Amino acid sequence: ETHMLSAPLGPNKKFLAEEARGYISRSTDLYNLIFLDIYQDITGVPNHLVTGEFFESLKNRLKPDGMVVGNFIAHPNFGDAYSIRLDATIRSVFPIVNRHVVTDYSGWGRDPDSMVNVMYTMQMVPDGIEGVYTDNINRAFIDKSRAP
Fold first, then answer.
1. Neighbouring-strand partners of residue 74
2. pLDDT tens digits for the chain (148 residues)?
3. Distance of CA 44 to CAs 13, 36, 38, 39, 79, Å?
4. Closest Cα partner for 82 from 119, 45, 55?
5. pTM higher than 0.85
């Protein structure tokens, strides 16, 4: 904490410098926000921290309106199997996902070596809002916000 932060954290925050999966699996605490910035070297996240089981354990540590923010090195245009499968794994656990590429990039680029920082924001669906629109059941007009 003293080497990474410019000031001590406030009373409602924790800085944990320990193995993520071990801590999450034994913890019973619930969090508003879990921020993942996990690397084993300059380009890679440890394999055991990109599994559905790990993301499920993170989901189980969230408060109902909580979120997970994760920083990953991935291809900005899904130009390799890792980037595609990482995205699919995250979306298989979290129903609401935002993916933000943290650099300028060409939307047409497919160079597999153009790995960049990609931030994922993962959230739970509020109670009672699961489902999809179909031709038979379509509440889109009712569900839309009326705010300008």
1. 116
2. 777 778 888 888 877 777 888 888 898 999 999 988 877 665 678 888 999 999 999 999 999 889 999 999 888 989 889 999 999 999 999 989 999 998 887 777 767 677 888 999 999 887 777 788 899 988 888 888 776 6
3. 27, 13, 8, 6, 16
4. 45
5. no
